Amino acid sequence: MSANDLSRYDQKLEFILRSAAQIFADKSYHSTTMRDISRATNVSLAGLYHYCKSKEELLFLIQDNCFGRVLERLEERSVDVNDPVVKVQIFIENHLSFFAANMAEMKVLSHEAESLQGDLHAHVSGKKDKYTKLATSILREVHSSQNDKGGRVNLTVATYALFGMMNWIYNWYDPKGKLKVSDLAQNLTQLFLEGFAPGSVSEATVKMRNRPENLSIWRGIER
Amino acid sequence: MSANDLSRYDQKLEFILRSAAQIFADKSYHSTTMRDISRATNVSLAGLYHYCKSKEELLFLIQDNCFGRVLERLEERSVDVNDPVVKVQIFIENHLSFFAANMAEMKVLSHEAESLQGDLHAHVSGKKDKYTKLATSILREVHSSQNDKGGRVNLTVATYALFGMMNWIYNWYDPKGKLKVSDLAQNLTQLFLEGFAPGSVSEATVKMRNRPENLSIWRGIER
Fold this sequence. Notes:
By secondary structure, chain A is mainly alpha-helical.
């Protein structure tokens, strides 16, 4: 296979996965058939099976790539950052900018968390756990760095409250609407950080850089 | 029909609705058949149709009663309350204690929001909008009551962030675990209020009363 063929293969797979995520988000994984995906993509059933073994593998690739890419981006952006409050800001901005560009995938992660079985489920759960634990450890660092010891919010509650307020956006937020992702991130960062670590937010640190980049979950698919 | 018959009818309907909510939560509304509900409840198919016209009517009764009951409880508990910060505390405590007792129904509200059609969908959406607008109006009152005009969080973002952090509990919270619902409510109240209206939370007001009560969503079904 030449490099050119590989790239065409990747592009087609990306197109199939993105279409599948949209259909799973619209009518649920269980109600979707390979025939639905074939119809939506204009790829024959035989053609689809050239790219994936089953509907379950499609769901796995969507979930696995989402967690993989969001973690990878976070690690890239957190290199050399030592201030735990800035780490929280980067975590929120990274999560929101990534998922605002991948809302269908976000809904699929949330609604179909239990739809995979066995090893595939275990593999995705492992990545999700790693991501969740990373959030908790950053929040623990924020607690440790604060001198004031009064009225602290439970770390588990704070971690899931943060994911809850971020992930709920698939129910209401329109990335093409008036409120820009950067404004959404700034508002949620202020709300969360001021509540979790009162006085930790300064105007200077909340301002996030806003550079153009590729936010597809599919770049760097491992096969 | 005697009063006694009515009560037996209500009890049976309550049992069917609660079982249906659990099955919808486990395997999704679309993947559930009336036969599944018949099997789980040990009520014959003919028997089921004595209580509801269709699977869609079951989903409607679950959603409609959830929003109806949580609103009704909130209104009862907010009578004579004027302090907007206390109103927020009651809103959070009411929502969490109600849905922690009805986790399957909570998941069904979240995952099957778009599964109803036409008039049934419009009716439930109306109640949901009323509830959401009530939250926003209380938050607006909190803003107005605050003297400090700096760094305010957007009201729409704050409203959905609040619902997000509360509703996400169906993904992680175990009402039978170590963390009591009252502690969960206290932590989320502190996190949210301190973030939304810094300095508004006092120890005295966060403490919520904890009285035994009937938290079923089914009391007072209108037929």
